[in-house]
Amino acid sequence: MKKSDFNYRLPDKLIAQYPLPERSASRMLHLDKLSGAVIDRQFIDLLELLSADDLLVFNDTKVIPARLFGHKSSGGRVEILIERIENPQQALAHIRASKSPKPGSLIELENGCCLEVLGREADLFRLSLPGANGLLELLAEVGHIPLPPYINRNDEHSDLERYQTVFADRAGAVAAPTAGLHFDQAILENLDRKGVKRTFVTLHVGSGTFRPVRVDDLSQHTMHKEFYSVGLNAVDAVEAARARGGRVVAIGTTAVRALESASAGGHLAAGIGDTDLFITPGYKFKSVDALFTNFHLPESTLLMLVSAFAGYDAVMAAYRHAIEQRYRFFSYGDAMLIT
C-alpha cells in the first residue's frame, strides 16, 4: 500500500486543543473488526465491554518536560527538544536556531545553566550538562511540556498533569501514550472491582511519532527508533490471560509496538532495547487481541498500524463516521475501541 492511501480530510476544528475537564468524559467509537460495524459510545462504556478474563496492557512511560528555550553566546535564540536522555549528564536533542550550533559551543538556558554542544549525530545534537545536577532535575526546573505540533498554543500549567497518564512511572517519553490519558483512578478502581487484570510495558514515545512519512512507497520508509521494555511480569500476565480464555487488550499503539517487538521471535518474551518495528496492513499480530486507541493523523505510521489491526477498509470507514459525528481528534481527543 501507499502513503496516500491513508490520507483523509479532517476539519481543523475537530482537532482537540485542550482535554475535556474530566479524563473519562470522552466519547468512544467501537469498531468490530470482523463485521466492520461501528457503534457510538462513551468511554465509560468500556467497563461493560470487558470481562474479568481480559488483560489490559498499559504503557507506563512518563513524559518529561523536554522543551527548553535559551540563547547562544552570540545572542541568537535557541529552542531545544530533548529526544533521549542517555545518562544523567548527556542527551540527544533536536535544536532549532538560525544557525546550527558548533561543537564546543554553549547554550544558556532561562535559569542561567548552560548546555554544551558535543557534536552532531544525523539530525540530532549531543548535549552535555556540566556539573553535579542531572538533566532530569534541569528539565523539572525550566523544561516545558512538548505538546504535539497540531496543538496550536503554548503549554500551560494544566498540561503538566493532563498530558500525562495517572499511572506514568518511567521517565523518558517526549510524547504521551495518549490512549492512556482517558483513564482516571475511578475507572481503574472500577476495573479492579470487576476483576479485569492489567499489566504494564514501557515504550518511550519519541518525537518521531509525529514525523511525516516522506515516501509514498511504504517499503522505503525508515521507521524511527524508540526504547521499549517488556518485563517477565507482563509476559506472565499475557500467558495467564491466554490460559483463562481472556483477551489481551492493548491500551494504545505504543503498547502494541512494545508487545509485538517483544514477540519478534514468534512468541512473547521479556525483552529490552530499541525498536523500529513498522506495522502496516498484512502484518500478523502475535500478542494483541483488541486495541483501545485515539484517532491518528492522516498518513501517519500509527494510522497504518491501526489499519493493519482492524483492516484498512473498516478503519477508513470508521474515521469517516467519526468525522461526520464530530468526534474530537488526536492527543486530547476521543477514543476508539477495536474488538
Automatic annotation (TrEMBL):
Job description of the protein: Transfers and isomerizes the ribose moiety from AdoMet to the 7-aminomethyl group of 7-deazaguanine (preQ1-tRNA) to give epoxyqueuosine (oQ-tRNA).
Pfam families found in the cross-reference section: Queuosine_synth
Organism for this UniProt entry: Methylomonas koyamae
Enzyme class: transferase
Encoding gene, per UniProt annotation: queA
KW Transferase (keyword) present: yes
Designated name of the protein: S-adenosylmethionine:tRNA ribosyltransferase-isomerase
GO biological process, any: tRNA queuosine(34) biosynthetic process
Keyword set includes Transferase: yes
Enzyme Commission number: 2.4.99.17
Metabolic or biological pathway: tRNA modification; tRNA-queuosine biosynthesis
Protein family membership: Belongs to the QueA family.
